[in-house]
Amino acid sequence: MSTSAPVVETARQRPSVAGWGLWRFVTQNFYVRRLFKALVTVWVVSTIIFFLIRLLPGNPVEQYISRLIETQGMDYENARMQAAALFAIDLDAPLWVQYGEYLGNLLSGNLGVSITSPGTPVTAMIGRFLPWTLFSVGVGLILSFTLGILLGLMMAYRREGVLDHVLTILASIVSSVPNYLLGILLVVWLGVQWKVLPIAQMRGTMSPGVVPAFTFAFVYDALYHAFLPIFTYVLTTMGNWMLSMKGSTVGTLGEDFVTVARARGLNDWRITTAYVGRNAALPLFTQLTIAIGFVVGGSFLIETIFQYQGIGYVLGSAIAQRDYPVMQGVFLVITMSVILANLLADFLYGWLDPRIKVS
Amino acid sequence: MESIQGVLSWLGTTLRLMSYNKAGFIGFLMTSAILLLCLLGPLWIPLDTKTKLDKIYQPPSAEHWMGTDHQGRDIFSQIVHGGKDVIYVAAVAALLSTLIAVTFGTVSAFAGGVTDSLIMGVTDVILTIPQFPLLAVLAAFVKLDNLTLLGLFLGVLSWPALLRAVRSQALSLKERDFVEAARALDLGTGHIVFRELVPNMMTYIVISFTLALTAAVYTQVGLVLLGLVPVSSSNWGVMISLAWTQGAIFFRDAMWRIMMPILAIALFQLSVITMTRSLELAFNPRLRTMA
Amino acid sequence: MVQSTVGRPAGDRHPDKPPLSLQNVHVSYATRRGKVQAVRNVSVDLHAGESLALIGESGSGKSTLGLAIVRLLPETARIEPGVITYRRKDREVDVLKLSRSEMRAFRWSDCAMVFQAALNAFNPVLKVWAQALDTAQAHGWHDKPAIRRRLVELLEFVQLDPKRVIDAYPHELSGGMRQRVLLALALLLNPQVLILDEPTTALDIITQRTIIKLLRQLKQEDHFTMIFISHDLAIAAELADRVATMYAGRIVELGTSDDIFYRPRHPYTLGLIRAVPTVTGGFEQLFSIPGSPPDLVKLPSGCKFHPRCTFATERCQQEEPELELVGAEHSAACWNWREVQAELQRNPLHRGALNVLDGIGSEVEGS
């Protein structure tokens, strides 16, 4: 009777060498591979920024030195010393030593000192303003992703229906308006023309007198102030999620495993969530990379428009005032948050799709 | 004579294919109308630069189709003149980024191996850097007072997402029978690329171009809005930026002044994006041979 | 051994009350070109413990009929008129009149279906165990240890190592393994009727043999009523008690395995058998039916097979024949079945035409 014994392939055995084993650990473990890639990206971006600042024609260090000489009548040596202190760079050392020191400073969290508000370390500014951006952008992204997936799923189930047509048209209109213009439109219409929202009151990140604590009053106040940025992020990105999810769901509904699940007598809810929804949402995670960068990147205009004091707002004013150390530090931090967010998205994807971990 | 006929019949087929998608065709007509108005309009409609204190902030009327601004100048004439620069910069940027994306995307897909890994590695790193802040920070260093330079600058940094899309498209084409067949027949790389691939990639290239166009409009106007790109003349972005910095958005009567350039940009973006649906049909080699 | 693991006391055998009977079943699809008549006027009884094979070219309606029984056709399909009666013990239901939730309960616990494309039959993101659990829980069985025990038993029956398979994701299993897991899953709830749609297509020869062996073991347990849908006549011959030939949505011939393969009376069945390549026979004996299956939107007049039939007469073009008895348990829908009989006497079927039968025949009769 036993023509074919159970055939299960055992893991391929390779000669084990210590170094080889480590290499294999890095290249074959999905999570380690992603973490490694994120670290490399952080390093590459920091390096690019260093060389841009030092080698670009409009080199900000030189610009700052000449500005000090012009405006404050400093002599070159003094101006140079002050610039070096601000940028946390030893200008006399060879370039590669400067680069080494720069990386060392980064690792120890020293990003230099702001020019416009002297004495304030860039790290302190980041610590103060970054959480607000993480909060508003994070909530916005999660909301739009979740809503987009749910609506896309509904559109696929009722395709060619009224809901489908209306949402498709709305989605294509809203996603073709640049998000900062939508922000301006919200201010113009909701705030000024119709006076629905007290725009002036909603500015900033908190109302005066509210203390950051894990209380209802604080959370409510934070959401109240972040409402317009979040609303803008959700409105401008949801359309794409909806349309992608609809397309992906229509494809998944035609898969054999959905028919088999119905043949197995599973109830509709289970099929829609665990069989159709989960599989249809998977391709969207790969688009998350681009979306996160886009929203975080765009946040700095949105925050400027709504006067929401997050890290993007700080970047906006640093650029306007040519506060180079702040620009450099904030830009690095923004990039790192994008890399971190991508890492999280990758991990989530790996957790949701078992197939991804093998290749 | 024959070549003229050929061109005409090509145009006819293209238009017919495009008209199969109604929304896409409307997008195409709107895009054409906006382009015509912005490129040829300035020849007929003079830019209104005269301050007329008695005509400040007028709503749309027969005389001023889009109302007047804070100095009583006609907004419509500013809109007509303000599109040219925006579209020019966007076109330069889109051309450059499409060129980079298509060239390296195809090379990456077909070369495979180390070349592929290298190109994709670089692409992935650049893709993670948020583009808009990067452009803004760079714009603070480099003086971008020339439109072509601005376009090139936008184009050189905005190709990674397109490249990934082109590469995956090329990868799927590579597996198709006709390419395999051409390889088996040893028809040479040139033949494979220009006779087999480019016609089949055309849809994708054209769509990439339109998407790059809208992306370039997005970043460009954003930079103008932040005041990072020198304010040269009338331009949709500059109009919004001025209205913004002068506080016009908080002034109820100033609504037309700020709405019109926003509408112009939104309409342009919407028309171009909708048009891609028709372009998909028009450049599909299979549909074309059937027609 | 098999009896003790998958079997259960045979008690629901009512020889006079077939577990599944189809009466006058029609299936049509609304398409832009018009109404596609995929299945027309099919009436057949499935007796307890019997296995029926549906054979025919693709597009003959055999898969549609299988899907119609569990009502899994696309939304554009209509099953009317027709009655599908299902009986288990004292319960008797009209499948086509079941409510949504009753239908859900009917599927898999009364009538399980093993699909053609078992490669994609599993949700790629859930482990085998989770999918088995889903199935059991959907039918109100929540006793996890018992479900696990049952699944282990069944996986052993289909000759898989439960330890390796139960916590594996579908992509970690080969095609043949997935097909066997699906078979095990189909038996999980002790269904009375098992529909197997091309159970061995797309598998390599060795795996095919394993599956066929398993199916023959199942067949020997007389409480399973099975429907095999296959275009592979050898498999039908090996596994079926009775065979129905389908053409253009209708059953054109119905009889015991021996009747159909040794004494076909319908020209289409004859054509199918003669088209089977043989190991011993040369290529000169190979025959193929001329023409292609008819357009189901614009069916030909009269007998739907007449444009491709070598026996066709004037009458075939005008009147469509009904199934009529041509033997004890054998019926065919052909005006000229006697001509076919005569033709068979002149040119007997090549003994090797279905040489598999020679090996199996004794077993079929012995069971």
Write a short abstract of this structure.
Chain A is mainly alpha-helical. Chain A has helices spanning 18-28, 30-55, 60-72, 76-87, 95-107, 122-157, 162-176, 179-193, 199-202, 216-253, 256-263, 268-306, 311-320, 324-352.
Biggest sheet features of chain C: 8 strands, mixed
Query: Which regions of chain A contain 5 or more consecutive residues with pLDDT less than 50?
Result: 1-15
What's the CATH class label of the largest domain in chain A?
Mainly Alpha
Radius of gyration of chain C: 21 Å
Largest interface, counted by CB within 8 Å of the partner chain's CB: A-B, 50 and 44 residues
The CATH superfamily of chain C is identified as P-loop containing nucleotide triphosphate hydrolases
Separation of termini of chain A? 36 Å
Write down the overall geometry of chain A. Answer: globular
> Overall 3D geometry of chain C?
globular
Describe what this molecule looks like in 3D.
The complex is a heterotrimer of chains A (359), B (291) and C (367). Chain A has 359 residues and is mainly α. Chain A has 2 domains: 19-107, no CATH class; 125-358, MetI-like fold. Chain A is 75% helix and 0% strand. Chain A has helices at residues 18-28, 30-55, 60-72, 76-87, 95-107, 122-157, 162-176, 179-193, 199-202, 216-253, 256-263, 268-306, 311-320, 324-352. The relative contact order of chain A is 0.12. Chain B is mostly helical and 291 residues long. The radius of gyration of chain B is 22 Å and the shape is globular. The model of chain B has no long low-confidence stretch (mean pLDDT 83). Chain C is an alpha/beta fold and 367 residues long. Helices cover 35% and strands 20% of the residues of chain C. In chain C, the strands form 2 sheets. Chain C has an 8-stranded mixed sheet with strand order 7-8-9-3-10-11-13-12, with helices on both faces. In chain C, strand 8 (193-197), helix 8 (205-220) and strand 9 (225-229) form a beta-alpha-beta unit. At the A-B interface, helix 2, helix 7, helix 8, helix 12 and helix 13 of A face helix 4, helix 5, helix 9 and helix 11 of B.
